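Lab notebook page, bench 4
Experiment: in silico fold of construct C2
Operator: M.H.
Input chain length: 153 residues
Purpose: comparison with the prior construct
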Amino acid sequence: MPSRAVVTGTGLASMVVAFFGGITVVLAAITAALCTGKESHADPEKRYVAGIANGVIYLIGGTLAGSIVLIFNAIPAVLVAALAGLALIGAIVANIRLLADDLSYIEPSVITFLVTASGMSLGGLGSAFWGVVIGLIAYWVLRVGRVTKRTTP
């Protein structure tokens, strides 16, 4: 497939948007690759729908970028950080699940990570200490709960 026209077109579009503070226009965005991969649909003939939806959402987001930035500036920074943390919980759990052979370690590992990442300080001790302590307590509580469930008739 000849690519000269596509490369020239995206290059010219990049030059135009650069004058307005935009970033380069590329066709090989990682989200496009993710949206058109096998995870988007089992049938390869229908995967294009997710790619088109991705492009439409980018156009809407780009059009409303100024308003989105103003909204996020109006929200307290702590709330934005909490929302970002909540958004990452699924990815964190999935990666820990890949590493943990014993499933009883998953929840305490996530709790340990979140407490450590919080940066909290209590009694002159930092978040690394409290992450380990609270993670061990979480492991013990969750383990006792599982043992109790198994032994109760």
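Observations: The mean pLDDT is 81. The longest helix spans residues 127-151.
Next step: discuss at group meeting.
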